[in-house]
Design brief:
The complex is a heterodimer of chains A (291) and B (338). Chain A has 291 residues and is mainly alpha-helical. Helix content of chain A is 74%, strand content 0%. The two termini of chain A are 33 Å apart. Chain B has 338 residues and is an all-alpha fold. A two-stranded antiparallel sheet of chain B has the order 1-2. Classes of the chains: A mainly alpha (291), B mainly alpha (338).
Chain lengths: 291, 338
Amino acid sequence: MSVTLPAPSAMDRVVGVLRRSPTFAIGFAILLFYAALAAFADLLAPLPPTLSFPYETLKPPGTGQFILGTDGNGMDVLSRTIYGARYAFGIAVPAGIIMVVVGIPLGLLAGWKGGWLDEVLLRVLDVLRAFPTIILAMAVVAAMGPGFLNVILVIGFLDSPIFARIVRAEVLALRNATFVRAAVAAGNPEWRVLLVHILPNVILGATAQLPLRMAWAVRISATLAFIGIGVQAPAPEWGAMIRQGAEYVISGEWWVALFPGLALIGMVLGLNLAGDGLSDLLDPKRRASGK
Amino acid sequence: MTVARFLARRLLVAIPVALGILFVAFMLIRVGDQDPVAMLAGPMADAPMLDRIRAELMLDQPLLTQFWAYIQRAAQGDLGMSWQGNAAVTHEIAEHLPATLELVTLAVGLGTLIGVPIGLHAAQRPNGWFDQFSRFGSLFGFSLPTYWLGLMAIFVFFFLLGWAPAPMGRISMMVTPPDPVTGSVLIDSLLARNWEAAWSAASQLVLPVGCFTLVATAPIIKQTRAIAIEVMGSDYIRYARACGFPPRVIRRIAMRAALVPVLTFIGAEFTSLLAAASLIEFVFAWGGLGHWGLNAILLGDFAAVQGYVLTLAIASVLVFILVDLAVLLLEPRAQARG
């Protein structure tokens, strides 16, 4: 006679994960909030983000219909801050996809084949590690010209070697594992060993890095906009908004720079918390100890 | 293994990396669609004049020829002319570097003094309340944009409270600056016993250093904690515990073991902050190397960007060598390994 336990429902598993890592839970909740802002910006924002009221410039928060005030162009700060979430996701998600799509295959191949590909990858990593990425990103975007697409491409490609390094290290550790050698001995073609036997074992480690790297992407895209070479005002991008607000801070109009900055910090913090919690959840050592 | 041989070997390893960095910077700035010649010559220039300038700067040559010529001249200490300042790049770098070093050294120093004890303490009881608290704090620090923090500090402490001086450079315009000796305005005015200038320089430093320290401390806390936890779980600490040493002694053994990786990390942190300084300098009109390099990038000033990147690369190599030397002195095992 066998006793069948009810299989844990998807809901139970989600709750279990959230309870095991409160850090992840908080980060995830923050991200959900930002996702909602981005998705329903049209409904949530009281005014269109680039609608200008020429006679209502630099009104402090609480003036009439402007809950968070207006900027130097007479645009509503609250609406622009809400729409900023679209730019943040619009840059972080495609950049994240580039990192994964370029970095993981590169790391798989470099770790498996070794040889010149591995050598080249390691040298590129050396240069990237010694080269401050922020300066590299600024120089590339400055050279390619400002624009949404350029920012995504630069961030995505600059960060993909980091994924390649993580995957490469895990592939090296697995190369001589019994199950891999068995798969090779059984006559599997190389691509099948890589995709079916190795990839599922290395992908978790890379996944935990993704939110952290996306946090970096959101930060760096705002930085680029702040120094004036990323997304350009009057587009409602947080960095560009802080840049607009910078000139008013010294004369006391604090709200133009404050609110987009808070929004930026919240989103980056959410991604960092989620990434930090995720790497704890996926760390086999901690999983085994039941924490 | 003598120290001299160690240094020679380190330099040999560093040269290809530095060349690689320089090559990337060199190519990057040239593949863009900025035309420096038109900018340099001004709107009145005609086609033959543009061609002449182009030939003078070797911009009509193949890229690899240009790179080779640049390397040859750089080896003789000639990094070309900066167009924005109309001066030799080496001169501009020497003029701007001390201001950035002053800022970064203070921020990393304070960050170490604050971050290392917090990280060590958090590692004493992983997942305890202090650990959770410091973990959240350091993640928060990771998420702060320096430039925004600087702007808010200017609003609160300059505009609202009037405690800080105007965020315009390194010394008040009302005060006669001291003769440059070290390049750090604070140290120079102390050396000259010019107390008024010293006070002004110190008060200009407070806000940028404060903001920068907050950002510098976060990674130091996180890394120190991770290193300390790993050390506390190691075999030799377990052995020391089994031997019945009191906790105070065990902490001392663990701290010594954690010292080397923490030191290495702080070295890496120093070089990355040297680059990140450009943003805080931008906000506080600091006029250091970062501010100068950022302007060079924005204006497409080729020679200056290359000089800036080269300076950062050399600084990072020097810091790593210094850290390695310190490790060599601290840890006999490293000497034995060679």
